[in-house]
Amino acid sequence: MQTTWLLISGRVRKTESPPSVTAEDILLENPYTPTSTLAQAIIRASPLLIELIVVWEWLHDTAQG
């Protein structure tokens, strides 16, 4: 039961703040932006990707024990 609450709290925590800058805005400012920075902006802008990452992290943490 505790691990389920960790999953729910992780989802709430990661989806609380809306994205402030889009990948397109970053590229317009600097076309040589590293792909990792662009990937983070894309992830922050996508609720589905955020949820998938939360589940992946939760599975990773709970499968260790």
Secondary structure elements and pairings:
Blueprint: H1 2-14, H2 23-29, H3 35-45, H4 47-63
Helix pairs in contact: 1-4, 2-3
Q: Please provide the ordered H/E string of secondary-structure elements.
A: HHHH
Question: Residue-averaged pLDDT, rounded?
Answer: 82
Multimer state: single chain
Biggest β-sheet description: none
The rough form would be described as elongated
Annotation, overall tally of beta strands: 0
End-to-end separation in angstroms reads 15 Å
Question: Which key terms come to mind for this protein?
Answer:
single chain, 65 residues, mainly alpha, elongated
Word description of this protein:
The chain is about 75% helix and about 0% strand. It has helices at about 1-15, 25-30, 35-45, 45-65. It starts with a helix and ends with a helix. It contains 4 helices and no strands. The chain is mainly α and about 60 residues long.
Summarize the structure.
Helix 2 (23-29) packs antiparallel against helix 3 (35-45). The chain has helices at residues 2-14, 23-29, 35-45, 47-63. The chain is mainly α.
